[in-house]
Structure formats: structure tokens, C-alpha cells
């Protein structure tokens, strides 16, 4: 029996996760732990509970159903995360959706059925994108889903942080992928370790190898995080790295501060270095121009 | 791409800068203030008055009245428009139709120019003429009262007049239709006159005439007579233009006037010989139809097909350039905007901001099923993109197999630019739906849109598509409250179908709901049939009949079923809210047993006060229409099937069937305001979802929403649907591609219609806060376009709170935080306005007393004081007395608790008041209390319909007498405050 990964979102009609209209599947679990992650519920492989105290209407249904006594009324509703197993009983009973369970198992057939709902909207160019978290953590499951989709001629794309075992990736996933969006976050290894938790050596090596095999089907992306990745130095280094590989185009992802609120709801500690605002348009434009000029001198 | 020769479909070289005439006309059109026009009411009324005792059949009398009006209609040339002819005698006119609902503005005659919502200027002499000459003739004779008299005021009429169950469109209009201009353009009106004469002579030549023969002969004569009015009007236009040309110094304007004189000398009497003649001929015919039919949704139809032969010929011969064609089509667009509706202020609550919705349809396939998109299609799209006017409502047909993707993309691009038009229609679904209604394949392929979204075989199907507007929520409430509704209080309205505790299964409850709904439909249909018969007795349509396929062949007027197809349309308000309510009841009450039905009903009564968790369960945890949940899918399909079966079981007075539809104009906001809380967790008084659109925030993402609506069987909605989607503006070429792709996918999945508002919450909130900064922000309501500024607040809020989907992520964006949880209550009487300067006259004292009474808390004496003052003013004021010369009116006023009973009798120029019952009053006014009655009659910018909607004042009997009484009362108020 294949172990089923947890999926925290399936988004239909997505228009920014690849060409055309797409359905995007978000897996839980990631080898990186970027401090700016805008989907912080994707960091852990286990299920989690979102808890929004502002939406609570004080019905106390959560306390009544919690098997581990994690929900208490003191006198306002409190969630003791150390006692919470994220069984989801409170989320089921919470009328205002102040409690939401993040992470659900989908058997392959069920996931494929859901992914085929929007088949009419894919129209050749669109299709399915796997995102996360890091989808490649779940090679067996993902590979089965990809093969099923390919049998039905559905276009597929993957968004990855690049930290994976290249040979497994080549053997099980690559043959069924039309596009790979590959994140390059920080070129300096020490900075990478500091802000994402791990070294970038494997990531850069994987990228270099795949760029030779995949050509334009490999799309590098750089998230623009003010003061961290969006620095002249980092962008210059990444541009140089790409240029050496003969790559002249790369997507820039504007910073999305949405992760901060989610961290609050997940009870995670906040990162003081991450600002809770979008990047200034002017700054975004300046960084873009700088990067592009480095990429195509 | 059969007929597309243009290399640049976007006609990029043209802008408003290089079309200065259109630019100038547009500016003028947007700043012109509307004015009431009584020209038609005057001539039609005086003509009918003069033939009242002639013994002639109504067909001939009416045709004569139409001819009289058109022959005397003043030829007007207000601006540099290239087309001759105006709908009214004003640059931007609102014509009065006293035979329909014209009398509802009687109370407002003296205040209409200062009312808050969509004021209209009125010439004071015209107001006087309406008050003293025109309206009195119709006191007993308009459609509503003539029907009431003939039918003895049946229960269905009283139900209609509560205004919260169903609205009967025929009291106000038949109109909604798509005529066929082709024959008149190709062969000329003189040909049609000759044809009618020929057929009449052929019958008369038979000698001994049967009753049918006689009727046919009368019909042909009525057609001839009415059409003679059309040619007379054109001749007057020609003469008028020629005369102005002589006096015109400006050479450009002079040559244009000369050209118009020549055009009108040729058309519509003779065949059109050029594109310009064809467009002008069509416009004059469009104007002429309004001599007979009210200016609501007379839809010109497939203009890219009708006008194409002339366009092609002139372009090919070099007589016309694409720029000139754009100019002429643009001129037609601005002409179609030259008129607006004359409705009382409260009607703005129901139809607020609507133009006259002359729908234009482009694209799709031809009668043979082949690609019909041509160069003129793109010219029309360009004009739509450039002008962005409220009317005409432009509708783009798309056949997934026959029309090119380039065409679809171009339509999507125009939507991206205008942010809301055109609307999209799926040819394969629409044609299949019409064929299923018995329309031949060829005729179905030639369909066009009527008004909002209704499908019609152009020029062949007389559809009366707005016959019934039925409130589905009212049927649901009747089922939940055992035949009563919170808004109508203790009265037993529908059958007793059981108290909430009596239902043991969902099917039990569903049967009760179906029983109420079926009963309500029966009432609405019955009343519509009665109105239809009155139309047959009073309002034939000889002119319009000549512009249809069928009447001339069969010798029957449209109103007697002369068209090839004869449907009646019934549209529905509150579909999504009702489906979600059924879902919640099925899932949470009967399947999960989480709540009992009595619990839910009790919570609804209190608007969920103190029971927010229950409300949230209903709102958040029940299956929603707009998702793939099987319960929601089942209940939505079942409700549509039930309605389809119910309506198709009725045959109308013209021999056609009733067609259910799902468009709501602004009724979903207006009716929502009057409905209590619902089992889907919707709080009391909030708007319902529009058209067939899922409830805001129900569908989590764009494709899910589109999929759910596409799943609906189009055969079950033969009347058409309005599916309103809001998305944030589309910015890049890729986004545009995706927008077009989403529409194509929606159509492939079976969707029939979709229209967009590409706007953010912020844009709309800003436009609501600062209407002056966004005077011409165009929005799609529920089938028509309106300037956002013109909408009432409830409707603005409904559009603001429609879920906006992010055009990038495709997900539903959350509503602006905290916005619009409650709609503001209606404005109280503005006392400051009432304390004007007193008149220094004999009447000062009584009028002061009236003001005292109005502005103090002692309003209980209001009626007594009002009638006292009225009596005195009749005595002293000759002008005021004119109002009741020759007027006999018997009124009975009674408070609901019967503590007050007052009768008021107008006879022989006097008013007699008594505190007693009165036999045979024309109207009984039952009121909650003195304050309600006062607000009903006097409040500034009030509100007869509003008080009726809130069930605070319930009139029984002839409403026209009430309108007259309100006029009399308001006149006193204006005197007292020094405003007249």
C-alpha cells in the first residue's frame, strides 16, 4: 500500500501557476523552511489546525468534541497546540470555520477525479500543476498521479524548491512532466542555509543538470523577498549562474506577505525580518530591470 | 471565417479622436438631462377620446390613434446626429404611456424634477395637461383597472398588488420583443401597406364574409392605417430637415440636413438603397414601434445580419468607408440612448438604472447553420468598445464549432476594455433550447436576444418575455410558514401545507414547497391570461404586426397569436438562495438531524438573533449551489425541472407556452430587502443572488462556479438565464486568452449565457462613495447595463458584494471586511424641507395646521387634518378645484385595527368627508397608522409603491384613484411649503 501524502489545497481555475487555466495541488511538507514562506502550512508534513480567534462565535463546540482536551474555555476559547493531534474534530464542528484542518489524504483515484473536473477549461495549454510544499517528497504517489494524467493527455507542471534526489526524479517524475518551475532563492550558500534552513549545493547541481536535459521546459523562478533575495548582490549572482548555463529568461515572483497571517493562525513564531506589506511597485520594477539587464547583458 | 474580409478585426486605427462627430454626440448624450415627453400620450389619448363613441372596432380606433400621433409627431433635429428621427420630442425624453403604468407618476407630477433618484424635468404646462386632460381619461381604462373591472378583482390580482409574490409585467408592458426589419428595409413600408390592402381587398371581394373574414379585413385595414403614420412621420422629417437646411449657415450641418431630407424622402416608405438609408430606415421604424409599445426592450436584434447586405454593397462599390460605417452605427447607438423610462421613484427600487434595453445581437450562425460573423460584426463591436453607452445592450453569440476563436477573443477583448459588455451566448445550447420549444431549426438559428437575456426567434416569435416575475423565495417562505409570509403578516396567503413540525422527511417538505410554488405559478399565470385578454380588448399592435413574420399571412394581430411562435415568459427571483435553503434543510435537518425544522424556522423569525452558531451552520456547513456537492447539484436540477414542467403545462391566450427564465434585473435586491431570514443563513433584508448566479462566496473558485452553472440543462430554461460573474480586470494578453478560454470551456460544458463585470471591490466602493467622480461607470446588472451611479443603494451593494474572482489565481476573493452586513433603513421624512415659508393668504392657517401635523408627533390626526385642509382649499382655490371638476371619486380609509374609518367622496366639485363606511368605494386604503399613511402620501420623494411593498398601506380597488388622491395631497404639501 502506497502511503498517502497530505494535501492542503486544490485550487481550480488557477491562472498563475503555468500556461492556460490550471488546477494546482498543494502538498504538505518541505525540506526547506524559508522564513518568508507564503504557504507556511506547507512546511510540516503533518496535519495542522488553523485557529482564527477573531472568527470564533463562542459556541464552545470545539471543547465538547476535542478528544485530547486541547480546546479549553479560559474564559475565551484557547487551543493548546502541544495537546492537539490535529484530528480535525473541532474543525468539523466549528460553525464559523474559525477552526480549519490543513491537510487531507486523497486516494489517487479521488485526486485524479477532482483534477479532471476542469478538463474542459484546460483546452490544450492549461492543465495540472503540482506545488506545495515540495511535491517531490512524495515520489511514488506523485508519479502514479502523473502517469494517470498523462494517459489522458493532460498537460502537467511541477513547482519545486529543487532539493530532491535527482536520479529518483529523473526516473519517476520527469518523463511525465511538461514543465518544471524551479525556484532559485539565494545563490550564496551561507545565506541559503541561514534563510531556508539547508544548503543550496544540491539545488544548484540539480538545476544545472536538468537545464541541459530539459531546455525551455525548465523555468527558473526567483522569489523577490525585500532585503533577503531581492538584493542587487543575490540577483546578480543568480543571473550570472543562469547565464553560464546559457539561460536568458527567468520569472521573478513578487513578494506575497500572505504567509504572515497564516503563521499567526498556525501558532508559528513570526519572523521579524519579514515585512507585512507588498513590495513597492517602484522597487519591484527596479529589481526586475536590474535582474534582466544582468541576464541579457 | 466566411464573411470576414477585414485584416484588423480590432479596427485599431479608429479612436474617438478620429471620430469627432461620435465624440461630440457622446458627450452630449451623457450630459443631457432627461425630460418627460407627453406628445404621444396627448395625441393617442385625444384620438381615442374622439373615437370613443364611434362604434368602430378597437383595432381601427387604435391604429387611427397611432397614425394620428405619428403624423403629428414633431420632427426634431437636436444635434449633429446623421440619423433623422427621435423617440420623443425631447433630446433625452421619457414618454408617458397612460394606458399602461403611466398614472403611477401622477402623485409625483409636481416633484419629479427634484426627486432624489433619477429625477426627470417636466414642463409645468405638460404636467398640467397630464393632470387635467390626459390622466383623467384613463382612470378606469388603463390595463390594470380595465382588467380589475372585467374580472371582479380576483385573488390573483390582490396577490400581485402585494408586490412581494410575483409581478405581472403586462400591466406595464408587453413590448419585450425582437421585430423583423428585413422586409421593411428591403422593400419599404409602402410595399407592406400595399400588401395589407391587397389582402384586405381579396377578402372583401369574396362578398359574403364570415366573422373570421371580417376580423381579418379589419386587421389589414388597421395595419395599413398604422403604417401610414410611419410614412407620414418620415415625410415630416424630410420636410423638417429640408427646411432647416435652407436656414443653416454651417456647410457641414447643412449638407447633413440635406442628406437626411433625401434619406427620409426615400425610406422607410421605399426600399433602402444605401447603408445610410438602411440604418435610418431601421431607426425610424424603431421610433415608430414606440407609438404602440412602451419603450422597454424593443430589441432591434441581429443588426450585423440585417444591415450587412447594404454594408457590403456600399463598401464594395466604394460608396462607404469603414470609418463612415462606424460613424453611422455609432449614431444609431446614440439614438438608441435618446429615451428613458418614466417610472415612479419607488419603481427605481425594482428596475433602478435600467435603460430601455433595446438589445442588439451579433455573431453566431446563420439560418443554414454556417458562420455568420462578418465585417459589420466587428464594426459593431468597435462601436460598442468606443462608446460604452448604457444602451443598446449588446449580446455576442458564439458557436463553438462554426465561429472562429479570433472572433471569441475579440469579443473577450471588448469585454476587457468596456469591463462589462457584450454578454456571451452559446449558440449550440440556445438553438437546441429553442428547437425543443417547437421552433424550426432554421428559425432557431436566427435567434436574437430580447431585453436582458431572453431568447427569441427574431421577427417570428412574439414572446412577451417579461410577463411574470415570480419570487421563488416567497414560495419557500409560504412552505415554511404554512401558507403565510413574514412580510405579509397574519394573512393566510397560500394553501395550508403543514406546520414545520409536521414534516418528517425532506420529501414531505419538498412536496409542501412544490404545492406552494405550483399554486403561486397558477395565480400568476391566471392573472397574466386576464391581462392578455385585456390587451386583446384594448391594445392591438397593428404596426408591430406588420414587422413580424406571421400576422400578414394569417390575418391576425400579434396580440391574437398572429406570430409564428407565441410564448409567454416567466422569470424567477431568488433561485440560488432557494436552492441553498433546500440544501441546508435536506442536509442539516433531515439527513444529519443536527437541527429540527421548527428550530430553523424559529431562528429565521428572529433573524437568527441570539443564535449565530445556527446561522453559521446553515451558511457555512450546508451544501451550496455553485459547488460539485451532489445534494446541491440534485436540488438545483430538480427545481429547474419542476419549474419547467409547471410552466410548460400552461398554454397562453395566444396559443403559445410559458417559458421559465432566470434573470432578475434589480428585483433580487428589491425583493431581498423585503424578505426575512432564510434557511441558507442569509440574514433578513439582504439582497438575493442575481439571475441564475450562485450566492456570493458559495463557489470557491471561478471554474467551479462556471462548471456548476454549465451543468444546468439549458432545455429547462427556454426563457434564458443571466449568469453574472465578477472578476478583477484583465490586464495582459495571456489573461485575455484565458478569459476567452474560460468562456469557451463553459460553453463546451453546456453553459448558455455569461456576462462579466471586470472590477474590483475597491473600484465599486469608491464609485459608491464618490458618484460624481465616476458618473459613467458602466456595470452589468442582471441582463442589462446601467450607469452605477443610477442604481439604488441596495442594488449598488448587491453588485459590490458579488464575489470577485481573481483573474490570476481564479479564487474567490473575500468580501470587503465588515461591509454591507446590514442595508441602511429607508430615509425618514425630512422635516426641515417641510418647514418652508408660509403663504400669506386665507389658506395660511389650515396649511400651517397641515405642516404642524406633518412635523409633529401627532400624526394620528393626519388624515382628518388633510381632508379638512383639502376641503378648504377646494373652496378657496380655483386652480386646485379644477382637479375635481367632473370628477367622481369615492374613497374609504381604514386603519388595520379598524379604530379609524373615514370616507371621502368627491362629487360635483366638492369633497364630502364622513366617519362612516361607504358602499362601493373605488378604492379602500387600509393603513397601519397615521404615520404610515402620511409617509405613503406625502413624504418627500415617496413612496406609494414602497409603503405597499412594506405592507404598511394596502390599497384595494382602483389604484388610479389613489394616485390622483396622492397628487391632490402632495399639491397641498407643496403649497404649504411654498413650493408651488
Describe this structure in words.
The complex is a heterodimer of chains A (297) and B (980). By secondary structure, chain A is α/β, with parallel strands linked by helices. Chain A has 2 domains: 6-45 and 103-295, Alpha-Beta Barrel (TIM Barrel), CATH 3.20.20.70; 48-102, Alpha-Beta Plaits. Chain A has helices at 61-65, 89-93, 108-116, 119-122, 139-151, 166-173, 189-196, 201-214, 232-244, 258-266, 281-295, and strands spanning 6-14, 22-27, 48-51, 71-73, 77-79, 99-102, 104-105, 127-131, 155-160, 179-183, 218-223, 251-253. An 8-stranded mixed sheet of chain A has the order 7-1-2-8-9-10-11-12. In chain A, strands 3-6 form a two-stranded antiparallel sheet. A two-stranded antiparallel ribbon of chain A has the order 4-5. The radius of gyration of chain A is 20 Å and the shape is globular. Chain A starts with 5 loop residues before the first strand and ends with a helix. The model of chain A has no long low-confidence stretch (mean pLDDT 94). Chain B has 980 residues and is α/β, with parallel strands linked by helices. Chain B has 3 domains: 20-97 and 102-141 and 172-345 and 356-383 and 394-410 and 417-457, Alpha-Beta Barrel (Anaerobic Ribonucleotide-triphosphate Reductase Large Chain), CATH 3.20.70; 468-484 and 508-527 and 566-805, no CATH class; 831-976, Nonspecific Lipid-transfer Protein, Chain A (2-Layer Sandwich), CATH 3.30.1050.10. In chain B, 47% of the residues lie in helices and 9% in strands. The longest helix of chain B is centred in the first third of the chain and has 37 residues, at 211-247. Chain B is globular, with a radius of gyration of 28 Å. Residues 820-841 of chain B have low confidence and may be disordered. Chain A binds chain B through residues 11-16, 19-21, 23, 57, 59, 61, 95-97, 117-118, 120-121, 123, 125-126, and chain B through 612-614, 616-617, 620-621, 628, 700-704, 706-707, 734-735, 737-738, 741-742, 744-746, 748-749, 805, 807-811.
Amino acid at each position: 500500500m502506497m502511503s498517502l501524502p497530505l494535501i492542503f489545497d486544490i485550487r481550480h481555475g488557477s491562472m498563475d501557476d503555468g500556461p492556460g487555466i490550471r488546477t494546482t495541488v498543494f502538498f504538505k511538507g518541505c525540506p526547506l523552511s524559508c522564513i518568508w514562506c507564503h504557504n507556511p502550512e506547507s512546511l510540516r508534513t503533518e496535519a495542522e489546525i488553523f485557529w482564527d480567534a477573531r472568527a470564533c462565535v463562542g459556541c464552545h463546540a470545539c471543547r465538547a468534541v476535542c478528544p485530547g482536551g486541547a480546546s479549553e474555555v479560559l474564559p475565551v476559547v484557547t487551543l493548546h497546540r502541544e495537546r492537539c493531534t490535529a484530528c480535525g474534530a473541532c474543525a468539523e464542528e466549528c460553525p464559523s470555520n474559525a477552526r480549519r484542518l490543513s491537510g487531507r489524504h486523497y486516494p489517487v483515484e479521488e485526486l485524479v477525479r477532482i483534477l479532471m473536473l476542469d478538463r474542459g477549461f484546460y483546452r490544450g495549454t492549461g492543465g495540472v500543476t503540482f506545488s506545495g510544499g515540495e511535491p517531490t517528497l512524495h515520489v511514488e504517489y506523485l508519479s502514479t498521479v502523473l502517469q494517470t494524467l498523462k494517459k489522458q493527455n493532460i498537460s502537467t507542471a511541477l513547482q519545486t524548491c529543487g532539493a530532491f534526489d535527482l536520479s529518483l526524479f529523473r526516473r519517476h517524475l520527469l518523463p511525465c512532466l511538461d514543465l518544471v518551475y524551479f525556484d532559485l532563492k539565494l545563490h550564496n550558500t551561507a545565506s541559503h542555509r541561514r534563510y531556508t534552513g539547508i544548503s543550496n549545493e544540491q539545488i544548484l547541481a540539480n538545476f544545472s543538470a536538468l537545464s541541459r536535459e530539459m531546455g525551455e521546459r525548465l523555468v527558473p523562478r526567483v522569489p523577490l523577498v525585500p532585503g533577503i533575495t531581492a538584493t542587487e548582490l543575490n540577483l546578480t549572482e543568480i543571473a550570472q549562474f543562469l547565464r553560464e548555463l546559457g539561460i536568458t529568461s527567468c520569472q521573478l515572483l513578487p513578494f506575497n506577505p500572505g504567509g504572515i497571517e497564516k503563521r499567526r493562525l498556525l501558532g508559528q513564531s513570526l519572523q521579524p525580518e519579514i515585512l507585512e506589506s507588498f513590495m513597492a511597485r517602484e522597487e519591484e520594477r527596479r529589481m526586475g530591470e536590474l535582474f534582466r539587464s544582468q541576464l541579457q547583458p | 471565417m466566411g464573411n470576414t474580409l477585414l485584416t484588423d478585426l480590432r479596427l485599431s486605427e479608429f479612436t474617438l479622436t478620429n471620430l469627432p462627430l461620435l465624440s461630440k454626440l457622446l458627450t452630449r448624450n451623457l450630459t443631457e438631462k432627461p425630460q418627460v415627453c407627453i406628445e404621444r400620450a396627448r395625441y393617442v389619448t385625444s384620438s381615442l377620446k374622439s373615437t370613443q363613441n364611434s362604434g368602430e372596432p378597437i383595432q381601427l380606433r387604435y391604429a387611427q390613434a397611432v397614425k394620428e400621433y405619428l403624423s403629428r409627431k414633431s420632427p426634431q433635429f437636436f444635434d449633429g446626429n446623421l440619423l433623422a428621427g427621435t423617440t420623443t420630442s425631447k433630446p433625452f425624453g421619457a414618454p408617458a404611456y397612460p394606458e399602461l403604468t403611466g398614472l403611477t407618476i401622477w402623485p409625483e407630477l409636481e416633484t419629479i424634477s427634484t426627486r432624489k433618484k433619477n429625477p426627470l424635468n417636466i414642463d409645468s404646462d405638460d404636467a398640467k395637461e397630464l393632470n387635467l386632460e390626459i390622466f383623467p381619461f384613463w382612470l378606469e381604462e388603463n390595463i390594470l383597472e380595465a382588467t380589475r373591472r372585467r374580472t371582479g378583482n380576483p385573488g390573483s390580482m390582490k396577490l400581485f398588488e402585494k408586490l412581494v409574490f410575483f409581478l405581472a409585467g403586462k400591466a406595464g408592458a408587453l413590448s419585450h420583443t425582437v421585430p423583423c426589419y428585413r422586409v421593411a428595409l428591403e422593400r419599404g413600408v409602402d410595399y407592406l401597406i400595399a400588401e395589407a390592402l391587397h389582402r384586405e381587398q381579396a377578402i372583401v371581394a369574396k362578398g359574403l364574409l364570415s366573422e373570421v373574414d371580417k376580423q381579418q379585413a379589419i386587421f389589414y385595414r388597421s395595419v395599413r392605417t398604422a403604417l401610414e403614420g410611419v410614412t407620414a412621420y418620415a415625410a415630416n422629417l424630410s420636410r423638417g430637415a429640408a427646411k432647416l437646411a435652407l436656414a443653416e449657415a454651417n456647410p457641414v450641418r447643412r449638407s447633413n440636413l440635406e442628406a437626411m431630407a433625401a434619406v427620409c424622402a426615400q425610406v422607410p416608405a421605399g426600399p433602402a438603397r444605401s447603408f445610410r438609408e438602411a440604418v435610418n430606415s431601421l431607426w425610424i421604424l424603431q421610433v415608430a414601434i414606440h407609438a404602440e409599445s412602451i419603450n422597454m426592450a424593443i430589441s432591434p436584434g441581429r443588426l450585423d445580419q440585417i444591415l450587412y447586405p447594404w454594408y457590403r454593397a456600399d463598401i464594395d462599390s466604394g460608396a462607404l468607408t469603414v470609418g463612415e460605417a462606424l460613424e453611422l452605427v455609432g449614431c444609431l447607438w446614440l439614438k438608441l440612448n435618446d429615451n428613458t423610462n418614466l417610472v415612479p421613484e419607488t419603481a427605481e427600487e425594482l428596475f433602478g438604472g435600467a435603460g430601455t434595453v433595446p438589445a442588439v445581437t451579433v455573431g453566431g450562425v446563420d439560418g443554414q447553420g454556417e458562420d455568420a460573423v462578418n465585417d459589420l460584426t466587428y464594426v459593431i463591436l468597435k462601436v460598442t468598445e468606443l462608446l460604452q453607452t448604457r444602451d443598446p445592450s449588446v449580446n455576442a453569440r458564439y458557436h463553438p464549432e462554426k465561429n472562429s476563436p479570433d472572433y471569441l477573443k475579440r469579443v473577450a477583448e471588448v469585454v476587457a476594455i468596456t469591463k462589462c459588455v457584450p454578454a456571451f451566448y452559446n449558440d449550440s445550447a440556445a438553438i437546441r433550447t429553442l428547437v425543443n420549444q417547437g421552433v424550426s431549426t432554421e428559425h432557431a438559428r436566427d435567434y436574437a436576444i430580447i431585453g436582458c437575456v431572453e431568447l427569441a426567434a427574431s421577427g417570428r416569435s412574439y414572446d412577451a418575455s417579461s410577463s411574470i416575475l415570480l419570487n421563488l423565495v416567497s414560495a419557500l417562505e409560504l412552505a415554511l410558514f404554512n401558507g403565510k409570509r413574514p412580510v405579509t403578516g397574519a394573512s393566510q396567503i397560500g394553501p395550508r401545507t403543514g406546520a414545520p413540525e409536521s414534516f418528517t422527511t425532506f420529501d414531505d417538505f419538498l412536496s409542501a414547497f412544490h404545492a406552494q410554488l405550483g399554486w403561486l405559478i397558477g395565480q400568476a399565470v391566471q392573472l397574466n391570461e386576464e391581462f392578455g385578454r385585456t390587451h386583446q380588448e384594448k391594445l392591438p399592435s397593428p404596426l408591430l404586426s406588420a414587422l413580424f413574420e406571421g400576422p400578414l399571412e394569417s390575418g391576425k394581430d400579434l396580440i391574437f397569436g398572429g406570430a409564428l411562435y407565441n410564448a409567454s415568459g416567466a422569470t424567477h427571483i431568488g433561485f440560488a438562495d432557494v436552492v441553498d435553503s433546500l440544501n441546508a434543510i435536506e442536509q442539516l435537518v433531515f439527513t444529519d438531524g443536527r437541527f429540527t425544522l421548527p428550530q430553523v424556522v424559529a431562528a429565521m423569525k428572529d433573524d437568527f438573533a441570539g443564535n449565530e452558531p445556527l446561522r453559521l451552520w446553515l451558511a457555512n456547513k450546508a451544501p451550496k449551489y455553485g459547488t460539485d456537492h451532489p445534494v446541491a447539484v440534485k436540488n438545483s436540477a430538480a427545481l429547474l425541472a419542476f419549474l419547467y414542467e409547471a410552466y410548460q403545462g400552461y398554454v397562453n391566450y395566444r396559443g403559445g407556452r410559458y417559458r421559465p427564465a432566470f434573470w432578475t434585473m434589480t428585483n433580487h435586491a428589491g425583493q431581498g430587502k423585503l424578505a426575512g431570514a432564510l434557511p441558507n443563513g442569509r440574514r433578513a433584508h439582504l439582497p438575493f443572488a442575481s439571475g441564475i448566479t450562485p450566492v456570493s462566496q458559495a463557489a470557491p473558485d471561478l471554474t467551479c462556479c462556471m462548471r456548476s452553472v454549465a451543468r444546468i440543462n439549458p432545455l429547462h430554461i427556454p426563457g434564458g438565464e443571466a449568469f453574472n460573474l465578477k472578476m478583477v480586470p484583465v490586464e495582459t494578453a495571456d489573461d485575455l486568452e484565458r478569459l476567452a478560454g474560460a468562456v469557451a470551456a463553459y460553453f463546451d460544458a453546456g453553459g448558455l449565457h455569461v456576462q462579466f463585470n471586470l472590477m474590483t471591490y475597491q473600484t465599486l466602493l469608491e464609485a459608491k462613495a464618490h458618484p460624481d467622480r465616476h458618473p459613467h461607470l458602466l456595470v452589468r446588472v442582471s441582463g442589462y447595463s446601467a450607469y452605477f451611479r443610477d442604481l439604488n443603494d441596495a442594488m449598488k451593494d448587491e453588485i459590490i458584494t458579488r464575489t470577485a474572482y481573481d483573474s490570476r489565481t481564479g479564487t474567490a476573493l473575500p468580501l470587503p471586511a465588515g461591509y454591507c452586513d446590514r442595508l441602511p433603513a429607508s430615509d425618514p421624512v425630512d422635516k426641515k424641507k417641510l418647514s418652508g415659508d408660509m403663504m400669506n393668504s386665507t389658506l395660511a392657517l389650515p396649511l400651517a395646521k397641515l405642516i404642524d401635523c406633518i412635523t409633529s408627533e401627532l400624526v394620528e390626526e393626519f388624515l382628518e387634518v388633510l381632508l379638512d385642509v383639502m376641503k378648504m382649499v377646494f373652496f378657496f382655490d380655483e386652480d386646485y378645484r379644477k382637479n375635481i371638476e367632473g370628477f367622481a371619486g369615492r374613497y374609504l380609509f381604514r386603519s388595520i385595527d379598524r379604530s379609524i374609518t373615514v370616507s371621502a367622496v368627491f362629487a360635483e366639485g366638492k369633497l364630502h368627508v364622513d366617519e362612516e363606511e361607504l358602499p362601493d368605494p373605488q378604492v379602500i386604503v387600509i393603513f397601519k397608522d397615521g404615520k404610515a399613511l402620511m409617509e405613503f402620501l406625502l413624504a418627500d420623494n415617496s413612496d406609494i409603491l414602497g409603503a405597499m411593498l412594506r405592507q404598511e398601506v394596502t390599497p384595494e380597488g382602483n389604484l388610479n384613484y389613489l394616485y390622483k388622491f396622492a397628487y391632490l395631497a402632495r399639491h397641498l404639501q407643496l403649497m404649504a411649503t411654498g413650493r408651488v
